[in-house]
Every structure is written in structure tokens, then in C-alpha cells.
Amino acid sequence: MSIREPGCEDTLELELPRPAAYPAPVGAVGAWGPAATAGGRFRLLPVEPRRDLALLAGWMNDPVVDRWWSLAGPQERTAAHLGAQLAGDGRSVPCLGLLDGRPMSYWEVYRADLDPLARYYPAAPHDIGLHLLIGTARDRGRGLGAELLRAVSALVLRHHPRCARIVAEPDVRNAASVAAFRAAGFRKAAEAELPDKRAAIMLRDR
Fold first, then answer.
1. Could you give the 3-state DSSP secondary structure of residue 168?
2. Residue 126 needs a FRET pair 20 to 30 A away by CA distance; which of 91, 155, 163, 182 works?
3. Where is the Acyltransferase MbtK/IucB-like conserved domain positioned along the sequence (predicted)?
4. CA-closest candidate to residue 9, choices 43, 63, 56, 41
């Protein structure tokens, strides 16, 4: 399916914050433009809850996704997760990943050095972190995650000249995710005991 333009969405009963303009620290992710990938034309679109909540909640209730994100349940649970970011200062930007106009992944682009993650690894100023999930089963298991991670990493480095490295912290048990980051040029620098998991600290240098 292709993303609908704002104004064409169904009205939800939930009171949800609307995205801000995303000033620094992360910047205007929606203005980064598309990237060409082997899978098609890819771009990041900042989440608009009134348009995207039902789709994202559906993905979160997929058992494959819930194993690592732990957000299965009613839409209000996903709304709370999004709202915590959208009501903040722009240090974490939730986005849909669109491939040839089709929403197929969810991303969080965040300032890792300003995140609680910074307590668990030697953070450097302007580190940018990435969270990713592939929402559609048809897009899993064929190397697309690594392709998209390469594309998004290139966008981050292009639009954040002060960012010297990109950080990720997948669960060490999530072998597919760790492998995708490795294939995208990340290296495993360490492991860290986070409150909710043992994480592989993955770094990609500029």
C-alpha cells in the first residue's frame, strides 16, 4: 500500500501529539530526501500518529516484532511509545520507512549521546543512533535490512557533518539484526547490560 497524504486519514479517538518540526538535535529528517537502493527508492517519513498509528500498532502485534520490541497490545500502548518521542525536544524522531512509496519499516533516529544509552558505552558528541524494525513479513529474510541500513547511514552522515559515528544496540540474541548491521558496515564494539536486554553495541564510523 502507498502512504496516504495528510488530511485523508481516518479520525482516531485517541488524543495524540502531532510531530514537531524537529529542530536540532536530530534535525529535519523528513527533508533528507530519498535514497536509491537495490530494493527501490527509499525515504524516511516522520510519523504522524493520526495517519500511522493503526499500521504501527499492527506491526507491533506481529509476534516476530513483539519478541524484540515488547509493544504488543492495544493501540494506546504504541501511542504512548510514540508520544514520549513526539512530545520531546526532537532528540528522537520516529519515522516510517517507505520503499517506492510503500510503508514497510519503522525507524527511530536519535541522538545516542543524549540518550540513556550513553551511560552504557563510551559515547562521543553527536553520535546518532538507529532503531529499526521491518514491519512486513514479505520484506524479511532477504537482505533488505542491511541495504536500508546502508542507505539511512549514508543519509545521516550526509546531513550530520559533526556525527563521526552511528550507533545501534540490538539484542545480542537477535542474530538476524546483528548480522544486518554487520552487513551494513557496522562493527560490534562491545556488549552492554541495558535495563531490558543485553545489547550488542554496533558502531559504524564515518
1. strand
2. 182
3. 45-93
4. 56
Predicted local confidence at residue 17, as pLDDT: 45
CA distances from 74 to 56, 57, 61 (A): 11, 7, 9
Looking at per-residue confidence, does 26 or 203 come out higher? 203
The answer for residues whose C-beta is within 8 angstroms of residue 82's C-beta and 6 or more apart is: 16, 47, 49, 53, 56, 94
Q: Cα–Cα distance between 182 and 176 in angstroms, integer? A: 10
Q: Give SS3 for 205.
A: strand
- Letter for the amino acid at 101? G
| Residue 44: pLDDT over 80 | yes
pTM to 2 decimals? 0.87
Which residue type occupies 117?
Answer: L
Q: Between vectors from CA 94 to CA 47 and to CA 205, what angle results, nearest 5°?
A: 140
- Residue with cell string 548480522: 179
Tens digit of pLDDT for each residue in 87-146?
A: 888 899 999 999 999 999 999 999 999 999 999 999 999 999 999 999 988 999 888 999
Residue of 193, 44, 49, 63 whose CA lies nearest to 132: 44
